[in-house]
Amino acid sequence: MTLVDTNVLIDVATDDPNWADWSQQNLELASLHRPLLINEIIYAELSVGFDRIEELDAFLGGAGIEMHYLPTAALFLAGKAFAQYRRAGGQRSNILADFFVGAHAVVSRLPLLTRDARKYQTYFPGIELIVPP
């Protein structure tokens, strides 16, 4: 199973001129080896770009992406990692969602397909990432 970060799905959904090709290729490659997953946080972030729930569900279904809910241990770890970020001087308060995603990948031992390697590597050492070169 591979957890897919919101940015990768947005690239594909919007046909991003810089990232759509990379994201689509890596989604397809990952799907050859294991199921593609999102969690409820990624679902909520992705929903911003869709007018109707049916459209979002059709997009995810067409991509073969399944829902995998956050384990309680991941929720706890996300809070601790976010607290570490704030203690280290992190000023942004709107990135807690990223910590939920990283913690989910770590606790469930899932590789994470993302374009945001730095933050995940910093706060979740040992996380397995699929990222651009």
Automatic annotation (TrEMBL):
Keywords, comma-separated and alphabetical: DNA-binding, Hydrolase, Magnesium, Metal-binding, Nuclease, Toxin-antitoxin system
Record Pfam families: PIN
Keyword Ion transport found: no
Cofactor(s) needed: Mg(2+)
Record flagged with keyword Transcription: no
UniProt-recorded Gene Ontology molecular function terms: DNA binding; hydrolase activity; metal ion binding; nuclease activity
Domain PIN, first and last residues per copy: 3-122
Classification via PANTHER family: RIBONUCLEASE VAPC2
Family designation: Belongs to the PINc/VapC protein family.
Protein name: DNA-binding protein
